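_Full entry_
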Amino acid sequence: MIDALLSRIDALNNPTVVGLDPTLEMIPSYLREEKFAQYGKTPEAVAEMFLAFNRTILTAVQGIVPAVKPQIAFYERYGLAGLSAYEKTAALAKEMGFVVIGDIKRGDIGSTAQAYADAWLGETRVGEASHPVFNADCVTLNGYMGSDTIEPFVEACKAGDKCLFLLVKTSNPGSGELQNMVAGDRLVYKVMGDMTAKLGKGTEGRYGFHLAGAVVGATYPSDMRELRRRLEHTFFLVPGYGAQGGTAEDVQYAFDKYGHGAIVNSSRGIMCAWQKEGIDGQDYAAAARREAIRMRDEIVGRIGRIVLP
């Protein structure tokens, strides 16, 4: 799947991903009122809003952006209705040709890890039958309980040609409280980066990157630069661009000298572009498209034309 993602990035000349992280405040008033009138002020109404909003965003950025990253928490807070909206959003995105990164940040041991891996990347057995459930192309994971929490996902990735991204150096302000602590002769985030490389060893694809990627925040460009040098075969998922303060100048360090090796996320920057522009909510799709193009051009302007070997 890393090869497929890279091929899609190359085809669109765009190493960016749209985070589909909706909140009620992002939804234009006309759409809120329509769904509240239909379903009342219920979780079902919000789930329907999110699905309609996401569908329009996907249509707006189709052919521009190679991948989307729906974050599970924004849907989970609305219970089963929200999870249904998540599942339908992911399925629609795949039908439309996007690579889908399930932003779930799971991390647990033994049979629990296996259950998560089955649900998100593999298949769930029901008697003699097996069924894909959420069926993401990639997932984000928290590996701070150790490599055994990730191994079931690695095996699921191998079996299904999928990939994963481990939290290594995250974009939040408090990340250094743990990730920048010294552990022996390395900082903790470098230990996690090295573990990511070890988990992916031997799975390098056509373009030299293995199936275990790393989440590396745009808000710490010097750390990102060090990790890029250290993790030659690790593909980076880069949050923190835009609303969190990361810039194109910062994210350039996630890429190798060929302009490969990373995909940069923007969530609020694209989903809330209509609010930033101060335009009517009826035009949110056009604003999202403009922002997606602006982001692409800004980042490609820094790293140059992306050409795969």
